[in-house]
Write a structure and sequence with these properties.
862 residues; alpha+beta; Calcium-transporting ATPase, cytoplasmic transduction domain A; Rossmann fold; Calcium-transporting ATPase, cytoplasmic domain N; 8-stranded mixed beta sheet; 8-stranded antiparallel beta sheet; binds adenosine-5'-diphosphate; binds magnesium ion; ATP-binding; P-type sodium:potassium-exchanging transporter activity
Length: 862
């Protein structure tokens, strides 16, 4: 830090002068484009054919109304998708790009949009550079300029770094020279393309599903067509029938309802501190069977405190105090009086090394602590304050910095000291030991001591120093100074969250760069593993990988704690888990975690601690970095999936019922039971209110007492098939009975259709209630927990009865008023569907658990 930076007032003034540091937003789907996209679906094509058929047959009213319905449906779909998109954009703003700058003489992290020319910016690996920078100072600095030029290059002092490019390695500082539209990338005007949005897998599956239905319809229509033709029926009647069948079979409301369900899930997840970057990740998180989590910061609070120190002369010290508080005395083990650095030279040397190989910033003002940087580095600064050593730093000027990168496992610096140039190194014990010449006996002592500290859950770092300068970081012949043990408390809610995962049969693994014994101890406290389990290390994994893939898979399958793992190995672990059929959620924060995050089914990155690169590669971002938020997200994801199933059930079973009704009518040579327009009305208007309402169903409470569904489980599993078939048969058969008996009793065709349509509307209302739970009785589901659905039912009835009395509409739909007693009889008839479904649910519960009869616990996880 070689500057005081701008004052906040000056920065504010410059911001007003130059404007926000942002580029014009890439053009998202506009309302009009979304509207046009709506017409790209099998359903619409079929309806368009229907319109043409009606025109050919001269049925202008039908053609007109089908077109109106088509437009209305597209409009509703557009509005729903547009608002979902807006909500997603708003959420994306909750994860802003950040930059570390110096303001008022202190490093602070600011939203990159508030960068101004003249700002002093500090860059480190993983940053997406927020502005064009004149570099003044750099250490092993590398930038990936592919956003601009397509190559990755090293950039050194006195060069420039450009907005939009990525820091892949090292550190640099410099002055902002251009922001916003004045940057190179702003000048290119052409915006960085984030890639084309591919259709999410869920949507693809639904598309396939609709396509298959469309094919099935064509076959059924062809059959019925030939059948009626052989009978010598009127050709235009047959066409009409075909259109009606097509309309009934296609679940028109499905895409819109799914979008709504996902959007609701997205909002609920945001409340649980999970920001969704890709809408479909909502559903993916619900299906995850394996969560692979970082340790530091996700399972722990990332507040490192040095608790113990062990010197090479075997003196041992205890350090009091916690977190950033600068009071806390240091005692030598077994001595009553606190020590001072004047009498303990080894302690002084060790602490000084920890202060020199350090990138953090810590200033105690009377009113406020200014802390910035890595937790490990800050812990050393706190120790420096406790031992009153920080003033020593004035006698040292830094010549070279070898910044900490997680794949290296250490940090170092070369400084000019009163005794001449000096190398200071701190880092992982094994790493630092290789840089020192140690006797076998000493090595053993160090390893024993490390093991002891790690066994107590401490993170252990070793420190070493030596005289001289260094060109590269391949140090040798250093003097080993000692070990430091840092505690980093577990997050208090992490243990509970791990327990919830166990209940939900989701496997949890810890993946860390830390020491295997430290990792194992913490994992045991978290109950991720039991007393007898072991950790597997990165080098064991790479040995196994060198042997063969199946050996690697075996190691991954039999362990839950992965320690001393290199970032690139995270990706291999992810791939292995996927090979073994897991549906993997993987967390990550560093620059090298991006491939693993992209590869996992659900990539999760950290909002606070994570780098820009990690956040850009993830599909979810945790705003509080907390493991338990992932678990809350999983519940929301499961709710969304269940609700999508409910919507599909409602739509498909009513569609199937309509087809069944038609097939029966054709078989018994009756006239067409419902006109195409009537079916459209039924499917889109009266049913359309309810399918979307099902997307609002709250948690059933058993989301966490059930195992995750198998990644390959089809939406149409046995339960779904049974329920669809049974309810379609009941509805189709009864509706046919009503239609046939009415005709038999001499009622006119039009009146018979009127009754049949009313019955179908009632069926769908009853069925909307049935759809609320797949196995719980409606008597158990809290009746008012989804007011939107109840309202939807009233609205559906209201609209339909209203239409009977609305002149133009009732003519087009061929409706006429039904008296109250008939309505009541129809309602009672429709209730049969409710009874049948309740009986099926009961039988399903018995089958799932014959001993109890009522196996589905309604225990809500707290
Ligand atoms: P984690 O998975 O817990 O985040 P890291 O990859 O950050 O683990 O750390 C791995 C090892 O690197 C640590 O055990 C420690 O020895 C070393 N280390 C971590 N942070 C620093 C740092 N700031 N300076 C030097 N060494 C560090
Ligand atoms: Mg770390």
């Amino acid at each position: 830090m070689t500057t005081q930076g701008l004052s906040s007032e000056k920065a504010q003034a410059l911001l007003t002068e130059y404007g926000e540091n942002c580029l014009p937003k890439p053009s998202r789907n506009s309302f009009v484009r979304l509207f046009i996209i709506q017409f790209r679906s099998a359903f619409i094509y079929v309806l368009l054919v229907a319109v043409v058929v009606c025109l050919i047959l001269g049925q202008l009213i039908n053609a007109f109304f089908i077109s109106v319905v088509l437009l209305l449906n597209a409009l509703i779909g557009t509005i729903q998708e547009y608002s979902a998109q807006q909500a997603a954009d708003a959420l994306a703003d909750m994860v802003p790009q950040q930059s570390r700058v110096i303001r008022d003489n202190h490093p602070v992290v600011v939203d990159s949009r508030s960068l101004v020319p003249g700002d002093w910016i500090m860059l480190s690996s993983g940053d997406r550079i927020g502005a064009d920078i004149d570099l003044r100072q750099s250490s092993q600095f590398q930038v990936d300029e592919s956003a601009l030029t397509g190559e990755s290059i090293s950039v050194s002092n006195k060069e420039q770094a450009f907005a939009g490019t990525l820091v892949t390695h090292g550190r640099a500082e410099g002055e902002v020279i251009a922001t916003g539209i004045n940057t190179q990338i702003g000048q290119i005007a052409k915006l960085v393309h984030q890639g084309v949005d591919t259709k999410p897998p869920l949507m693809q599956r639904i598309d396939q599903f609709t396509l298959r239905i469309a094919i099935a319809i064509v076959i059924i229509i062809a059959l019925i067509f030939s059948l009626t033709l052989i009978r010598g029926a009127d050709l235009s009647d047959v066409f009409l029938l075909g259109v009606a069948l097509a309309v009934s079979a296609i679940p028109e409301g499905l895409p819109a309802a799914i979008t709504v369900a996902l959007a609701i899930g997205m909002k609920r997840m945001a409340k649980a501190n999970v920001i969704v970057r890709k809408l479909v990740a909502v559903e993916s998180l619900g299906s995850c069977t394996f969560i692979a989590s970082d340790k530091t910061g996700t399972l722990t609070v990332n507040e490192m405190t040095i608790g113990q120190i062990w010197l090479a002369n075997e003196h041992k010290y205890h350090v009091a105090g916690e977190g950033l508080a600068q009071n806390g005395l240091v005692h030598r083990h077994g001595h009553g009086v606190p020590v001072t650095v004047e009498e303990e030279l080894g302690l002084k040397q060790l602490t000084l090394v920890g202060l020199l190989a350090n990138e953090a910033h810590l200033v105690y003002n009377t009113d406020k602590i200014h802390a910035d940087g890595d937790g490990v580095d800050l812990a050393f600064l706190v120790l420096g304050h406790k031992l009153r050593l920080t003033s020593e730093l004035e006698n040292h000027t830094q010549l070279t910095l070898f910044p900490y990168e997680s794949e290296k496992g250490f940090s170092a610096s070369v400084n000019n000291s009163p005794l001449g140039p000096q190398i200071s190194v701190k880092g992982a014990v094994e790493k630092v030991m290789t840089m020192c010449s140690l006797s076998e006996e000493m090595s053993q002592k160090i390893l024993d001591q490390t093991h002891w500290m790690a066994r107590h859950g401490y993170r252990v770092l070793a420190l070493a120093h030596g005289a001289g300068t260094a060109e590269s970081d391949a140090f040798t012949g250093l003097e080993f100074l000692g070990l430091v043990a840092m505690s980093d408390p577990l997050r208090h809610d992490a243990i509970e969250a791990v327990a919830s995962c166990r209940q939900a049969q989701i496997k949890v693994a810890m993946i860390t760069g830390d020491h295997p014994v430290t990792a194992l101890t913490l994992s045991q406290q978290l109950k991720i593993v039991s007393e007898h389990d072991k950790a597997v290390t990165g080098s064991e994994l790479s040995q196994a990988m060198a042997l063969n893939e199946s050996e690697f898979d075996r190691l991954v399958a039999t362990h839950r704690v992965f320690a001393r793992v290199k970032p690139e190995q995270k990706m291999e672990i992810t791939q292995s888990l996927i090979r073994q059929g897991e549906f993997v959620a993987m967390t990550g924060d560093g620059v090298n975690d991006a491939p693993a995050l992209k590869h996992a089914h659900v990539g999760i990155s950290m909002g606070l601690r994570g780098t820009d690169v990690a956040r850009e590669s993830a599909s979810l971002v945790l705003t509080d970095d907390n493991f338990s938020s992932i678990v809350k997200g999983v519940i929301e994801g499961r709710i969304v999936y269940n609700n999508i199933r409910k919507v599909i059930f409602l739509l498909v079973s009513t569609g199937a019922a309509e087809i069944f009704l038609f097939i029966l009518s054709v078989l018994f040579a009756l006239p067409i039971p419902l006109f195409p327009l009537q079916i459209l009305w039924l499917n889109l208007v009266t049913n359309g209110v309810q399918d979307v309402a099902l997307a609002f169903e709250p948690a059933e409470g058993n989301e966490f007492s059930q195992p995750p569904r198998a990644p390959k489980e089809p939406i149409f599993d046995r339960l779904m098939l049974e329920r669809v078939c049974i309810s379609a048969l009941v509805m189709g058969l009864i509706a046919f009975g009503l239609f046939a008996i009415s005709l038999q009793m001499g009622v006119s065709e039009e009146a018979a259709r009127n009754l049949t349509l009313m019955l179908m509307v009632l069926f769908e209302n009853v069925h909307a209630l049935n759809s609320r739970s797949e196995h719980r009785s409606l008597f158990v589901v809290p009746f008012f927990s989804n007011p939107i659905l109840l309202l939807g039912i009233f609205v559906a009835q209201g609209i339909h009865i209203g239409a009977m009395y609305t002149p133009g509409l009732s003519d087009a739909l061929q409706l006429s008023p039904i008296n109250f007693s008939h309505w009541l009889i129809l309602l009672a008839t429709a209730s049969v569907l409710f009874i049948v479904d309740e009986v099926h649910k009961k039988r399903w519960r018995m089958r799932a658990n014959p001993n109890l009869g009522e196996p589905i616990t309604d225990r809500r996880p707290e």
